[in-house]
Amino acid sequence: MDMVSLSPLSNECNDFGVRKPKYINRVHTGYNWNSYNRIHYDKENPPPKMVTGYKFDVFYPDLIDGNKPPSYTIEKDGNSVETYVCIIRFHGGLPYQDIAFKIVNNE
């Protein structure tokens, strides 16, 4: 999973007390037993694993406005030629900067 750069001003953000939140991310993978895979694969010779989901734990222990919950947005990746990749961006509020990850778009 790739970390996405959000700002070319990362050194200036540290001067004003803005910091990155702590996070843990996990990628869940599994087998897709569709009709093609059932015919061509079995339990001894399984199909390739594919991404089935993600789990993001983002920690904001020092939020200034504790009443407003953190939010996320899913955006298209304008720089990527692959259409199956998108960006998930987490916004917590001050004093934390946004954090973003490239993920597989399985809609």
Automatic annotation (TrEMBL):
Domain Splicing factor Cactin C-terminal intervals: 17-107
GO cellular component, one term: spliceosomal complex
Record InterPro entries: Cactin_C
GO BP: mRNA cis splicing, via spliceosome
Superkingdom field: Eukaryota
UniProt name for this protein: Cactin
Native source species: Artemisia annua (Sweet wormwood)
